[in-house]
Every structure is written in C-alpha cells, then in structure tokens.
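Q: I'm writing up a methods section and want to include an example of the input and output format. Could you take the sequence below and give the corresponding predicted structure tokens, formatted cleanly so I can copy it straight into the document?
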Amino acid sequence: MGSHMLTFEHLLAKETSSVIMSLQKCNTSRILRRGLVLLIVLTLVMLYISLYKLSSYADPRFHPKTPRSFDKNTAKIFIKEFLVATSRWSGSEKADSTNQTSVQNNKLSGTIIAPQNGSKKRFNSAEVKNMRKHILKFYNPDRDLTLRKSGLRVGQQLRYEMKWGNKTSLNVTKDFLKLIPEESPLKDRHFYTCAVVGNSGILLNSSCGQEIDSMDFVIRCNLPQIEGYEKDVGSKANLTTMNPSVIGQHFGQWDNKTTDDYDRLLRRLDQVGDQILYIPTLTSSVGDQWVSAIIQILLQHKLTMKTPFPPARINTVVKSIWRKAGFKILALRPSTGAHMYTLAATICDQIHMYGFYPFSEDTRGRALRYHYYDTNTEMIGNKTHSMPEEFRTLRQLHMRGALVLHTEPCR
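A: Here is the clean output for your methods example:
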C-alpha cells in the first residue's frame, strides 16, 4: 500500500500543479483565485478522508511491510505541502514566512534541493539551527560520542543497555582499553556539508557516488560494501559504523584466515583507513560474542582507525531526542540512520541523507533490494526498528529544510 500511495501522491501533485499553472495564466482577481484554491483544498480534504478510511479498513495481510499509519501520514503530508504551495501563489504572505525569511538571510539559502515531489526547495537555516539546539540539550559528540580511557579500568564491568539471557555486562580487558580513545575524535570539529549514507537498494543505479564524495564529511552505516558500487555510493568514508552483529551476519568464517569471509572483512575495514570506526558494543548483550573478535582483528592487524565506543545509554538518549522533538520512534530502538542523523545535526550545516528508503518498491514501481550490495529483497520487520516511521520523520525534516532526503537518481 505504501509504495502505491507514494506513486499516487506524485501523480496527484502533478495534476494539481497543472491546475494551478492554468489558474495563474488566467486574468482573475485575487479573491477569485483564493476561492478556486479553497475549492481545490476542499476536494483534497475529501480525498484525504477517503484515503484515511481506505487505509484504516485495508486488510493488513496484503501489505505486511508498510504500516497503515504511514499511509495516512503520507496523505497528511501531501495536503500540508499543497496548502503551503497554493497559499504562496494565491497571495497569502503569512504561509511559511518565517522559513522564507530565514532562507533569504542565511548562507544556507544558496543550496537548491530536490524533494520527492519534484519541486525545488531551499535549506532552512532556522530549522537546521533549531534541530541542533534541541539535540545539544541531550547529546554532544564532544562528551557523548565515546567512552574515554580515563574513565575506565581493567576488570571494570560495563552494563549493556539491553540484556539478553544471563549476560548483563562487558568486561573491560587490557586489549579493549587499548582501543578506547582519550577523547572524542570529533571534538571541536564542524563541517559545512555532510552525507549520511544508508544501504537501501534505492541507491543502486542512482549515480550518486560523485555527489556523495563531494561532501566535506561522509558517514556510512554498518561497514557496507563499497567496492564495485563506487558510481552509485562513492568511496569516501570519514565515519563508518559497525554493529558487532555485522560480523556474525555477513562474515560467518571471520576466524579462518584462509576463507573469503576473512578477506572480505579485512577489505571492508581497510576502506575505513585512518578515519573513524564507530562501534556500539554496549547496545545489547547479543553482540557480546563478537566484541572480542573485533578487538582481536583490529589489534592483530594494527589498523590505524580511531575507534569510538558509545556509552550504553546512547539508544535511550536518541529515542528521547526524537520523541521530544515531536517524532515517533515506536520500535525497540532507533536505527543506525537515526543515530547518525542525530550526530550529524550537531556538527554539520547541511545534511544530505542517501540510501534511506525502507520499501520493496520505489515510486516508479521498480522492485528494490533491502541492501544495494546484496540480493535480499525482504524488508526488515518493525519490531527492532520502525523504519517506515523513521522515513516519514526524515521526510518531514526534509520538507522543513532541516536536511535533504535523496530518493531519486543524482544528475
């Protein structure tokens, strides 16, 4: 349902845009134009009511991967966007006036962005600053990006944020302590343009690689495969995340140096170079078996990357940040993408999000892989991460000008 709704939204936007352009060409008074806009809006309200009922009574068995709430919210977003657009040409200066003033008076105003509906939009410096100000109340990368060596000792027990089975804490070993930084590798760092790159199949054949590499700072999620996909995803990586479970999921024979799995893992780590490898080891005790593997490989091969290890409370902090900003995170914990936007918002003036599209089809009806670098088409369930809801949130931030959500091929 979600993918078809998005396609319908595009078609409806196209038709209403044609109507508006026709009205603009007519030699009519402002009052008459506003009356015509009101008529169109009332029609759209009736349409929304129909969509709401349709999505409320739809049989979820036929659309198990897209929550009904996303369909209703998609309709809401379209109505809101249309109201803003029509208010401008009909003569109402109040609509979005604060945002427009911010755009005109700030250096971010020079960047044109292309939302999903195909219209042009600008970064809104007020929204960028508001999100940064809100996030910094709870999270600061100078303080919260990583554990610090000075605050740990060998033999100390670090409690996991989520416990499974009998394992409740991680033992600080001498080798583990060697990898802990003295301070945050992003302390006092700030960047003008940043790319946060997810791994959705929407990136395949996107030709976004050059655009991604042009950003001042590039964040990648969960040690993705880059080799062979540079045209679509680029090759630059300033910060790469790696959940410990990635080793078990994608490199089953990591402990055998003669296997392809071991070579692939080393190549993925080599792509990080001397940049940042962000390892959330304290999220869950499920990954405990892989933590020692990560430590062993990094030390044995004398890899030079910086290795921040976030504290156990980081998921609770990020979830609280998004909720208090008015967004919903309904699942067990926020996704890596939600974490990385939260981080980027504190150090970047312009944030571009690529590869965040959790649906099995794009707006043209083309089938998508779950990851651009594998053939799996099964989308993740909503128990661990509420991906469609997070996508809706990113799209709202995009429409407000706080970030750019790229879901179309780059040109």
